[in-house]
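User: Here's a protein and a ligand (flavin-adenine dinucleotide). What would the complex look like?
Assistant: Let me lay out the input and then the predicted complex.
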Amino acid sequence: MTGTNGNPTDTTDTTGPTDHTGVIVVGSGPTGLLLAGDLATAGIPVTVLEKRPRKISNLSRAFALHARSLEQLDARGLADELEATGRPLDRLRLFGRLSIDLTALPSRFNHVLVLPQYEVEKALARRAVEAGAGFRYDTEMTGLVQDADGVTVGTRGPDGRTESLRAAYVVGADGMRSAVRGAIGLPFPGKSVIRSVVLADVQLAEQPDELLTVSAVGDAFAFLAPFGDGYYRVIGWHRGHDVPDTEPLDLAEVKEITRLALGRDYGMHDARWMSRFHSDERQAPAYRVGRVFLAGDAAHVHTPAGGQGMNTGLQDAANLSWKLVSVLAGHADPALLDTYQSERHPVGKAVLRSSGGLVRLAMAKRPWTRAARAGLTGLVSHVGPARRKATAQVTGIGYRYPAPRGTHPLTGTRVPDVRLADGSRLYEALRDGRFVLITPAHEPAHEPFSPELPPHPDRLTTAHWASARRTTLLVRPDGYAAWASDTAPDPGALRSALTAHLGPAPARQLH
Ligand SMILES: Cc1cc2nc3c(=O)[nH]c(=O)nc-3n(C[C@H](O)[C@H](O)[C@H](O)COP(=O)(O)OP(=O)(O)OC[C@H]3O[C@@H](n4cnc5c(N)ncnc54)[C@H](O)[C@@H]3O)c2cc1C
């Protein structure tokens, strides 16, 4: 089999496609799971390929859910249960004395939620299964070829059995070493930023004072986070000990780095797992090639600083899922799918820049970089706009998507979780994956707002503001503003806005 770029890809299948589905998602990490759940909830046939066996969970790496991710999970009815499992933290310490206070964040989730990545995956996997997503574990994507009508994917399942599957679209959510990315011939330019990072899951004789402990002193950096089951994850790095990932690691080395960075090792003992890794900063130049998309770590990787990797992948998935649903259901032109690249690629780039900047400042060695660190600490701690910008970026609530020239200033911005006139919240109204049209409370509940009259009542929820706002606002399924008007729009203008975003065509069958 050959990729679209002509590169040979590794598949041994000779039997021809044996299955046909709407979307194949490769990888069941947080990105793939959120995406698969959204597609299945919308009735799109979806198959998830996962090379791990069912019972072996993804290595838990992330420990922090930021506000925007919690809002997305709220829009899927999952935030409350995760909030009950994790522990909220009002202040996020980035390094040294640089921390951001989250209590004034304009979000229902004015904190960072500390919980292991596998808890997020568990909730997302359950939702996807309940919605009818098909999972094939122990099944590796080995190659793909696309044509005008779809994508044929080569797989190797349990016992080495090979098979070809066919789908309208494929999403590579298969992590940093993405085979999908390779199959569509995309490079992953960037570099290793920090090498020889040590990871260990340990028990501690002394409990840290803070929920997340992080500091960098001299040449050493260490981070401690609780799993909630008595074990802590230690992440450490020492500039002076730069060895390959394959170099054996023992607890004494982890303890020493922790002592250097945090002043003590908290009596760590009984490591159940230890490893070395290196952290890269890389981004694919394109997130879409034809019918194949990249999302999450397959599209971008960066240092763990600021805890944004899983969070960015979840946002990628939330951005892509409703667009795939709209196109596959025949409501939108396939050109809508290009906006995934134009909206998410700049965000990935910004995350690479901010997390890389944090690491470089945390590990600053030269006098001028140390001075920059002190300056940034002062700026973020004491200057309102700088603090708000840093907070909005790390938590993900500050990103906005490009809006066409001449559109309302709200277009492309994140819509906060506003109260609606019936007592519910916007992010509850978003739970069925539809657009939401919010109109002033005094507008009559008939034309053009009557549920019968919008061109696509099955794709639109209508609501009124609880407050006395004059704006008419169309909210996308991912909680960003699609269109707005400050004055009551005439029915024709509203109807054409709805048609532009929800499409004129009736639903058609997948082929
Ligand atoms: C030490 C460390 C700490 C981190 N801390 C944080 C943090 O605090 N906050 C945060 O947001 N992020 C953090 N991250 C990053 C976060 O863990 C990742 O960004 C996140 O896991 C990416 O999710 P994903 O679904 O895109 O990919 P992954 O979680 O990597 O999932 C990819 C899946 O694809 C499967 N797969 C791969 N190839 C194939 C194939 N060919 N066929 C089928 N299946 C395949 C894999 O088995 C895997 O299950 C951290 C990372 C590290 C290393």
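Summary: Residues 338-362 form the longest helix (25 residues).
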